[in-house]
């Protein structure tokens, strides 16, 4: 796809302010954390792609003083509530964009989402990225959606750039752009 076609597609999608816009962009699933725990992520495809964490509530977020996430490499994922409040993007439903770039099965969508969910359940797993969501009081009602694609790294970078262009910041739980991020 040419640069012009990508820019036009981004413009048509807007800032991903609704689930309908995400569906139009090719995302599917929209399963809650609770649903994914119950199914063990069976509905998530075993494929390369990108995924998104969505919070549907329009209410202001409330944060737990301590993260429910696991301590990866003996690091506590808890952030100060004031820092989380400062990072919040008002009006945005997107909290995090992630990628599953393969090639191994542990690096495909189903396993990446499963690890993210397990991390949020307090398990020690390698999924440090997106950890801020596990301090939201309503974290079990967050929705995950996914989009299989051939080039997850480029797609994640495009999604982050589109969001940042529309909202003036990265999504709440994306702390860096893809090329700046350590693999987690």
What does this molecule look like?
- The protein has one domain.
- Helix content is 32%, strand content 13%.
- It is built from six helices and four strands.
- It has a four-stranded antiparallel β-sheet.
Nutshell version of this structure?
With 184 residues, this protein is an alpha+beta fold. The chain is 32% helix and 13% strand. It has helices spanning 3-13, 19-24, 33-39, 81-87, 109-120, 152-167, and strands spanning 28-32, 49-54, 94-100, 143-148.
Question: Helix and strand layout, with pairings?
Answer:
Layout: H1 3-13, H2 19-24, E1 28-32, H3 33-39, E2 49-54, H4 81-87, E3 94-100, H5 109-120, E4 143-148, H6 152-167
Antiparallel strand pairs: 1-4, 2-3, 2-4
Can you give keywords for this protein?
single chain, 184 residues, alpha+beta, 4-stranded antiparallel sheet, 6 helices, 4 strands, globular, disordered N terminus, disordered C terminus
Low-pLDDT residue spans? 1-13, 179-184
**Beta strand count:** 4
Order of helices and strands: HHEHEHEHEH
* Fraction of helical residues: 25-40%
- What's the shape? globular
User: If strands are numbered along the chain, what order do they take across the biggest sheet?
Assistant: 1-4-2-3
Number of helices: 6
Distance between the termini: 29 Å
The largest sheet is: 4 strands, antiparallel
Specify Rg, calculated over alpha carbons: 15 Å
Average pLDDT value? 87
Number of domains: 1
Which structural class best describes the helix and strand composition?
Answer: alpha+beta
Beta fraction: 5-15%
